Structure formats: C-alpha cells, structure tokens
From TrEMBL:
Organism expressing this protein natively: Cinchona calisaya
Family listed: Belongs to the acyl-CoA oxidase family.
Domain Acyl-CoA oxidase C-alpha1: start-end pairs: 279-440
The Acyl-coenzyme A oxidase N-terminal domain, residue ranges: 18-133
InterPro entries for this protein: ACOX_C_alpha1 (IPR055060), Acyl-CoA_ox_N (IPR029320), Acyl-CoA_Oxase/DH_mid-dom_sf (IPR046373), Acyl-CoA_oxidase (IPR012258), Acyl-CoA_oxidase_C (IPR002655), AcylCo_DH-like_C (IPR036250), AcylCoA_DH/ox_N_sf (IPR037069), AcylCoA_DH/oxidase_NM_dom_sf (IPR009100)
Single Gene Ontology MF annotation: oxidoreductase activity
Protein name as it appears in the record: Acyl-coenzyme A oxidase
Protein origin, superkingdom: Eukaryota
Keywords of the record: FAD, Fatty acid metabolism, Flavoprotein, Lipid metabolism, Oxidoreductase, Peroxisome
Active site, per annotation: 425 (proton acceptor)
Residues noted as binding FAD in the record, renumbered to the chain: 139, 178
One Pfam short name: ACOX
Lineage, broadest ranks: Eukaryota, Viridiplantae, Streptophyta, Embryophyta, Tracheophyta
Segments forming a coiled coil: none
Compartment list: Peroxisome
C-alpha cells in the first residue's frame, strides 16, 4: 500500500462479517487457503514473474518471455519441492497460458485415462520429469466439434507392426493444439483407426513430433504456429499449432489401448470400457474449466467493485463529495449479480470436482454407470459458467467506464484470455445440445419405471412439478429455499417436457431435434441454472463458521437466484411457474438484497484474497489509489518515450505545412 494509505479503509470498516473466515470458505478449506495464500505471495514477490509489459511486447518477445517464465517456474517447483497442489497454485498465480497447461492438463491426463498400465509405466515418468513435453492434438482445420469427422488416419501395417499416421487432405491438418506450434516433442494425436481396410473410429496415438537432440521436426512432419490471436498479450503466450503428417510410422504399442486394442495380426478388440472414454480427457478439463470460471469472474468483479467504490460521479450537494458510483442502483443491479455468480460458480465447481473424483474412482473399478451424468454436468456447466463469465468480464469493463478500456485496468487482457473458453473444450452450443439429448432421453423414459438419477432426479417428480403452483404471497417468501428450488425445478421440467412434446410430433426425431435446437438450448440453460442454484442452497446447509459469514452467503445466494428469476421471468411466466405478481415480488426482494450487499461489497471481494500482482489492475488495487497510479502508468507507455513522436517529420509536419499554405 502506497504510504500506508488505504483509500478503501472506510469501505472495509462497513463489513458485517468475518472476512478471514470468508477467505477460507472461498478457498475451500484452511489447508487450501494456506497454500493459495503462500504461493500467491511467493509469485507476487518474485520479479521474474512480473506481468507489467505483457500487453506491449511483440509476439516473439512475448513468447520467449513465457518460455523463460515456464522454465524458471519449473526450477522453483523442483528447488522448493512443491507438491502437485502447490505447483498448480503456482501456475494459477503466474497467470500466463503456456505449453505447460496442455502438457500437465491434457497430455498427461490422456495417457492416464486412455493408456494401459504398461503404457502409463513407460510414458508417465518421462512426462512427469518433463523429459518429453506433450500436447493434445485433436482438432483439425476442417473439424473441431465433430470429432467423428476427423480425417487424420492411423493405418495399421501388419508387415512392420506399425501405424502409419497420415494427413490425407489440407483440412486434416491438426490446427489449434496448444503447445504444438513451437514446444511439444510429443502429442496425443487423434486419428481414424484403419486395419485391414476397415475403419474403427477415432483413437488416440502417442506420436513423437520433434527430435529430442535438436528440436527439429521428425521426417514426414510439418509443424508451426497458427498465428496471432485476439487481444494483446492474452492467449498469444501460447503456441497454438498446425501439424501435418506424411506417412509417419509409429510402433503399434503407441496407440492408447485402454478402450480398444489392436493385436499383432491387426484385429481390433474392444474392452468393456465404453468408447466414450476416448473423450475422457475433455470431461476432465471441462470440470477444471468450471472451477476456473469462478476465478476469472471473481477477478473482474473484484476490479469493478473496488473501482466503483473509488469512482465518484454526479450528486454533490453544497460542495460535498460526489456519489460513489457503487451507490447507484443501476450499478448495483449490474455488479452484484456478477459478484453472487462468482460465489455460486465457486460452489458448483467444488461440487463438480467431487462428482468427477467419484466418477474416476468408479471407472477404475469398471463401474461406468455415472459416466452419462458426468458428461451431462461437465458439458452443461462448462457452457453455462463460461458464457456468463465471458459476458460478465465485459460487463465489468463497462462498469469501469472509460478507464476500463485501458490495458492497465487489466480487463481487456482478462477478457481476451478468457473468451476462448466459450469455444475450446467444446463449443458451448454444441455441448448444450449434448445435454439436450440427455434431457430428452430422460423425459422419454419417464413412466418406463427407470427413475432419473443425479442432477436429473427432479424429473422423477414430473407429475407433481407439472401440477405445481407457487405459493409466494409476499416478497420475503422468496427467501425460502424450498419455494425457490421448486420454482426452478418446475420451470426446467416444464421447458423440457414442452420440447419433448413438440419433438414427438416429428416423424424423423433428428429433423425435429435440429428444428427445435434453439428451444432445447433454453431448456438446458434452465436445467443448468437449477443445478447451480441447488448446489448453492446445499452449501448453505453446511456448518459455516465465522461471524456473519453464512448470512452473507445467504444474501448472495438470494441475489443469484432472484436475479435469474428476474432475468428469465419470461420462462417462469410462460410456463406458469410464477404469476406476474410473484415475479414482481421477486424483484422487490432482489432490491432489498442489493442494499444488504452494498456495505459488504468491498469485503466480499477482499475475501477472494487476490494480490495486486495477480489482479494486474490499477483500477482494482487493494488500496484504491487509482488516479495517481493511472497518471504514472500513462507516462510509461513507449509512445511517451519522446515528446515529439517518431513519424512527425515524415507525416505530421508535411500535413501541417500543407494546411498553412492552403490558408495563405
Ligand atoms: C508460464 C507459466 C508457467 C507455469 C509452469 C508450471 C508448471 C507445472 C504446473 C503444473 C500445473 C498444472 C496445470 C494444469 C492446468 C490445466 C488446465 C488445462 C487447460 C486447458 C486449456 C484448454 C485448451 C483447449 C483444448 C481443446 O479444445 S481440446 C479439443 C476439445 N474438443 C472438443 O471438445 C470437441 C467437442 N466435441 C465432442 O466432444 C464430440 O464430438 C461430441 C460429444 C459433440 C459428439 O460426439 P459423438 O458424435 O462421438 O457422439 P454422439 O453425440 O453421437 O453421442 C454418443 C453417445 O456418447 C455420449 N457422449 C458424448 N460425449 C461423451 C463424453 N465426453 N463422455 C461420456 N459420454 C459422452 C453421448 O451422450 C451419447 O450417449 P447415448 O448413446 O447414451 O445417447
Ligand atoms: C484458444 C484455443 C485453444 C485450443 N486448444 C486446443 C487444443 O489444445 N487441442 C485441440 O485439439 N483443440 C484445441 N482447440 C480447438 C477447439 O477445441 C475447437 O475450436 C472447438 O472444439 C470448437 O470447434 P470448431 O472450431 O470446429 O467450431 P465449429 O464447430 O466449426 O463451430 C462454428 C459454429 O458452428 C456452430 N455449430 C457447430 N456444430 C453445430 C451443431 N451441431 N449444431 C448447432 N451449431 C453448431 C457452433 O456453435 C459455432 O457457432 C482450441 C481452440 C481455441 C480457440
């Protein structure tokens, strides 16, 4: 804090709860708080991890700087003997996408999930020591969403006991894999398996791409970076790559063989493991993306909330101070639902992590029964949380007025780095349509005796939900979680049933599905919002220590669901889940909750425990010392290196001269 002055001190005094305890709730436990707090400070205090110039560096320098940081980070991890949890926190606080994300986040999980014990024994020790660096090479120039449409081929040659990996067309070029462009020595490459002239679907293969001696591509391999991406800095620290194969040979045992095996004589043997396990790495990453959404959204909200308390505009009486923009009801109605969403996503992310761990344990014991639930929840929640977060970051930029548009606000880079999350690991609409299929299947099986389970269990009470009438009579009734849950369940169930009824009128169900896909996506949004609301409510049923902490969370939970109810009141009214009067009461209660958030707003964002280094924002500084720092930063821009700019003599002077002679 500059000179020890805290310009937000008065705001912090208004807090009605124990901020330290809230930090622990946000982190998940004392243990995770301790690690996160220690590692965030370690990163913030190390100049090697500075991010100051990132948005101004040319691509080559930016990329080299990322290589330097990654190599230094790896050294620190080893020197300090950091655990996996600590290393992953270090990656989080370094806050720079790099090839290491794909190596640790996808290459290793793909081998773990789809490799046999033998394959894991061979490849994982090399990968863990980073003696090989891997990427996840699935998407091609012509196909990303449609994985079954990939064109790269892996043809078994029984003569040599090898697969021949080949890119038969331009559109079969691998395109997008992170870490591929300039760094990876290996990749898990997804290709169409062909044996004895027959196709056997898409499988993963471990392929060496570059020589370990001098990093040059192996014979038959063309490889490079796909070029600059959206925004300054941002995801341009990553070498997303292009890759082509010209009949590249790999040994047979480099096909990942947990799901299917190819024998020495070229026979394909299916194991008991469902083929969808080939998609398992994506399910894992989608789950991590949901957890990450709360981080990105909370970061933007922290910046916008602190700045909204610092910024004053209009409303001065008798020469007194102007109004803090955070006191405008419109500012609150845009900002506080995002604050509440950040907390909501935190808790649903925690729950999804639990669900994923449970599914993984079951898979190890060959119990695949919960795989569809894992797929539906990860796909749906990934789509919902990333869409809200991307839009939320942009809203936070607008909430910061003009200064939000400066790179020094941290928001443009945060948006640019975050927004591809709506596309990667499955385009959000494509994933929502996956959930829609599962929802329609669930509805069609109602009455067959097969009870829906997990997050679809509410559909088992369909008769009741179709009869349901909301009995809210006064605004405070909307604080009753049981009433809220039923309203959200009835809305989701009725929207799904309505789609199913319309679908049943089509002779060709696929045609019907395509025709109704926009309505189906709306039903999926309702279903996913119900999951988030229900997990927030479940969280409040836990023992949560600390003065006022649970009360604050109750208020945020109320803001979250009442905001959704208000925003989607069209759904609630059209399905007759609430009356216009009840919808209006919900909005009245929402306004009351906004006033309860207001005094706690700064403390609620302090509870994220973000360092100024991590936030990377002058507007979001902990001490609120915004104006002097913005002024100071402007002078550091390279354009201000000289008073008269380069190009003056060439372009400005002749222009001015020409105007002068025109006047004369
Ligand atoms: C400088 C810093 C230095 C720091 C250094 C520190 C060093 C060390 C630190 C260590 C720290 C670790 C850090 C880790 C960080 C991790 C972060 C990871 C970051 C990741 C970045 C992301 C990059 C992006 C990657 C990608 O995008 S990869 C490519 C993703 N692609 C997709 O998602 C494609 C989407 N398409 C599909 O998934 C499918 O095609 C489809 C599902 C849409 C359709 O498939 P298909 O046609 O085959 O299937 P059907 O629709 O016919 O369905 C058939 C049935 O299968 C079920 N189904 C479908 N999918 C699944 C599934 N996944 N699981 C289970 N079941 C599934 C359907 O439901 C159908 O079922 P039914 O038969 O019952 O109806
Ligand atoms: C930053 C970034 C990093 C990436 N990293 C990797 C990586 O490491 N490895 C890797 O393999 N891939 C990676 N990808 C690729 C990524 O997974 C794909 O781009 C993503 O899955 C979307 O596929 P697509 O590009 O084919 O989009 P498309 O499917 O072509 O989408 C285009 C439009 O069509 C719509 N659409 C498509 N199908 C349907 C449908 N059935 N119904 C309705 N609408 C539809 C979509 O909603 C979208 O609006 C990365 C992408 C990005 C942006």
């Amino acid at each position: 804090m500059e000179g020890g002055v805290d310009y937000l001190a008065d705001e912090r005094k208004k807090a009605e709860f124990d901020v330290q305890q809230m930090k622990i709730v946000w982190a998940g436990s004392h243990h995770t708080f301790e690690i996160s707090d220690r590692i965030s400070k370690l990163v913030a205090n190390d100049p090697a991890f500075s991010k100051d110039e990132r948005t101004m560096l040319p691509r080559k320098e930016l990329f080299k700087n990322t290589l330097r940081k990654a190599s230094y980070a790896w050294k620190r991890i080893n020197d300090l003997h950091l655990s996996e949890e600590e290393a992953s926190q270090l990656r989080f606080y370094v806050d720079e996408p790099a090839f290491t994300d794909l190596h640790w986040g996808m290459f290793i999980p793909a081998i773990k999930g789809q490799g046999t014990d033998e394959q894991q024994k061979k490849w994982l020790p090399l990968a863990y020591k980073m003696q090989i660096i891997g990427c996840y090479a699935q998407t091609e120039l012509g196909h990303g969403s449609n994985v079954q449409g990939l064109e790269t081929t892996a043809t078994f040659d029984p003569q040599t006991d090898e697969f021949v990996i080949h890119s038969p067309t331009l559109t079969s070029s691998k395109w997008w894999p992170g870490g591929l462009g300039k760094v990876s020595t290996h990749g898990v490459v997804y290709a169409r398996l062909i044996t004895d002239g027959q196709e056997h679907g898409i499988h993963g293969f471990i392929v060496q791409l570059r020589r370990l001696e001098d990093h040059r591509p192996l014979p038959g391999i063309i490889i490079g970076d796909i070029g600059m991406k959206f925004g300054n800095g941002a995801y341009n620290t990553m070498d997303n790559g292009v890759l082509r194969f010209d009949h590249v040979r790999i040994p047979r045992d480099q096909m990942l063989m947990r799901v299917s095996q190819v024998t020495r004589d070229g026979k394909v043997v299916q194991s008991d493991v469902p083929r969808q396990l080939v998609y398992g790495t994506m399910v894992y990453v989608r789950q991590t993306i949901v957890q990450d959404a709360s981080c990105a959204l909370s970061r933007a909200v922290c910046i916008a909330t602190r700045y909204s308390a610092v910024r004053r505009q209009f409303g001065s009486h008798n020469g007194g101070p102007e109004t803090q923009v955070i006191d405008y009801k419109t500012q609150q109605s845009r900002l506080f639902p995002l604050l509440a969403s950040a907390y909501a996503f935190r808790f649903v992310g925690e729950w999804l992590k639990w669900l994923y761990t449970d599914v993984t344990q079951r898979l190890q014991a060959n119990d695949f029964s919960t795989l569809p639930e894992a797929h539906a929840c990860t796909a749906g929640l990934k789509s919902l949380t990333t869409s809200v977060t991307a839009d939320g970051i942009e809203e936070c930029r607008k909430l910061c007025g003009g200064h939000g548009y400066l790179c020094t606000s941290g928001l443009p880079e945060l948006f640019a780095v975050y927004v591809p999350a709506c596309t990667y690991e499955g385009d959000n609409i494509v994933l929502m349509l996956q959930v829609a299929r599962i929802l329609m299947k669930t509805v069609s099986q109602l009455g067959s005796g097969k009870l829906p389970v997990g997050t679809m269990a509410y559909m088992g009470r369909i008769e009741h939900l179709l009869q349901y009438r909301c009995n809210v009579q006064k605004a405070e009734d909307w604080l009753n979680p049981a009433i809220v849950l039923e309203a959200f369940e009835a809305r989701a169930a009725r929207m799904s049933v309505s789609c199913a009824k319309k679908l049943s009128k089509f002779a060709n169900p696929e045609e019907g599905f395509a025709e109704l896909s926009a309505d189906l996506v709306e039903a999926v949004v309702a279903h996913c919002q119900l999951i988030v609301v229900s997990k927030f409510i479940e969280k409040l049923q836990q023992d949560i220590p600390g003065k006022g902490v649970k009360q604050q969370l109750k208020v945020l939970c109320g803001v979250y669901y009442l905001f959704l109810l208000h925003k989607h009141q069209g759904d609630f009214l059209a399905t007759s889940c609430v009356t216009p009067k009840q919808a209006s009461l919900a909005n009245d209660q929402l306004r009351v909750l906004y006033s309860q958030v207001r005094p706690n707003a700064i403390a609620l964002v302090d509870a994220f425990n973000y360092t100024d280094h991590f936030l990377g924002s002058i507007l979001g500084r902990y001490d609120g010392n915004v104006y002097p720092k913005l002024y100071e930063a402007a002078w550091k821009d390279p354009l201000n290196d000289s008073v008269v700019p380069d190009g003056y003599h060439q372009y400005i002077r002749p222009l001015l001269k020409q105007q002068r002679s025109a006047k004369l």
